[in-house]
Amino acid sequence: MSTETLIGTGINVFTSDARTVGKIRFLDSPEEVLDFIDGPDVAETIVISRGGTTTFMSPALMAGVAGLITLQGAPESHLGILSREFSIPCVMSTAFSEGVQTSRGETVPADGSTVRLDITGDKGQVFLVSE
Amino acid sequence: MSDEIDVQLLLQKYKGRYPQGTAGDEQVRADLPVPFIETTDADVRTSGLSDDQVNSWLEYAGWNLWDFILGRASEGESGLIPRQEYETVSFVQQWANYPKFIRILTEELGVDGLLELATTSRREVGTKVNVTRNWAASVCPILGRGIAVDLGFHGPDDRREDLEDFIQFGRRLQHGTWGGGPGFVSARGFQVPVLDDDVLATLVDQAKPLEGPARDAFRKFNAKTELFGFMLHYDCRAGMGDTGPYPLPGGRFAIVRDHFLNETAYPWSGVAEGLPYCVTEVLIFPSDTVTATVNEIMTTFTQPTNYLDHLIEGVVFARDEIDTPMSQLRVLDAPEMDRISERCHKGTLGMYRALAKKSRDEKIRDGIMVYTREFLQSHALKVGLWDRFLAEGFDTMTADAEKAWPVLTGGKAAEVLTPVLLFGKGFPTVTSKESQPA
Q1: How much is the ipTM here?
Q2: Structural domain spans, chain A
Q3: What is the pLDDT of residue B438?
Q4: CA dist B210 to A80, B147, B156, B219, B308, Å?
C-alpha cells in the first residue's frame, strides 16, 4: 500500500483529471536533456527544469515525458504555453518542502523518487509516493 | 519590512494603483490626461505631441507591459538561450538604431502609406506585418529608452523627437489595422478579431470536423510546428501569432493561428529547408464550453485551460513563400501535415544540438539579430526597403547597446530590470517642452 505526502505546490498550467505519476529527473543542462531523451523510461519520467522558457525542454516535450515541473515561470511563460499544446501536465514556480539540494541550493525531489502531479485545479500539487 | 510590503503591492497593482486585466485597463484609461491611446484619422497625422499626449501614452504602455509580464513571472532563466539577456540589450539597440529606419519608412510611404501597410493584417494570414509588430515596433524601443534612462545614458527629456516619432509610428500602424479607436489589444477587451469578414470566411469554410485520430494528428501538428517556430526564432514569440476569437454561427468561435516555419532572415535558417514559410491553422471551438482571450503578442489563453480537448473543427493552410498571394494558400492534407510535423521535430532537435555548442555571447548576439529584425523587417521587405535598411546599418550594433550589454547580461541584471519591467520605471514621463532649455 502506497502513501502520498504533499511536498510541492506551484501554479498549474492546464487542468486535467488524468492521473500523472512518474519518477523524477532534474535536468540542469542541454547535455543532460539530450542524454535523457536517448535513455530509457522517458514516458514514465516527470522532469524538473529551473526556468519557464520552452526551448531548453523542447527535446523532452517532443519525447513525450509524463510531466513537467519548473522552479520559475508561470502558465503564460513559453514552456507553459507549449506544455499545454503538447498536453503534458505542467506545474510551474513550484516550491518544495523537502528533497535534496541542487548545486544552487534549490530544494527538489531526488532523482528516481516517485511523485504524482495533481493538476485538477489552479494550484498544481506534487505528492511524493512511498511504497 | 516596508520594502517587502511595497514590492508585494507593486506586483499586485501597477505602480500600486492599477490591477491586471480589463479592470486595470479601465482604471488606467480613466486616469489618463487625454485619451491618446485611441487613434483618429486626424491625430495619427499630427507631429509635435503635447506632454499630455506623450505621458498618457507612456502611462498606458507601462501598465500594458506590466499586465502581461506578470502572467509570465518573467519566465525565469533558460538553460539553452539567454533570452532575457538578448531581449533587454535589443531594447536598447532599438532605441538607439530604429529612429532612422522608422523615419525612412514614414518618408518613403507617407502616413497614408503606413496606414495602408498596416491593413495587411486584415487581409492576409501568414504575415508578420501583424498586431504583435504594431505593438512591438513602438513599445519595445520605448522600453529601451526607459532602460537607457535608468542606466544614466541620458535623461527622460532628451531625444523627445525620437520618442514622439516612435509613439506616432506605432499609433499609425494600430490605426491602419483597426481603423480607429483603442490601439492596444488590452483596451479592446483582449480580443483580436482583425481579419475582414470575407477573408475569414474563405478560411473557415474549409474547416472539417475533427475527431479521434484526425484530432490527435492535428494537435500533434500544432504542438510540433509551434515549438519549431519558437526554436527558429530563438525562443521568442515572433514565430507565432493568433487572431480572434471570431464568433461563428452555430454557437462556435474560431482562432486563426500562424506558425512561421521558414523565416530565411537568419544564418541558421537552413534548418527550415523544405518547409512552408508559414502554416496557418483555423481552430474552431464550441462557445458554450470555451472562452478565449488573445493578448498583445497574439497568444491565446482560455477558460477552461485545456482548450484543445474541446477542439471540434479545424483546417491547416500553407503559405509557401513570404510573398505567396493569399489566393494561392494551400490546404494541407494529412500526409503533408505528418511530413511537416516530422521535419519540425528533426529541425528542433538539430537546432537544439547546434545551440548547445554555441557560446553564451554568440547566442546573445544571434538573439539581438532576431529581436531587432523581427519588428521591422517584414514591413521593409513588403515595401522594397529592406536592402536599403541593411545598407544603412540596420544590423550594426550601437555604442549604447554595447555599453548596456555587460550590465544587462551580468549578475546584476535583475536589479536593473525588475524595476524597469515591473515597478513602472520603464516608461518615464516627460516634462513640459516649454520648460526645456532652447
Answers
A1: 0.94
A2: 3-130
A3: 46
A4: 25, 48, 54, 10, 11
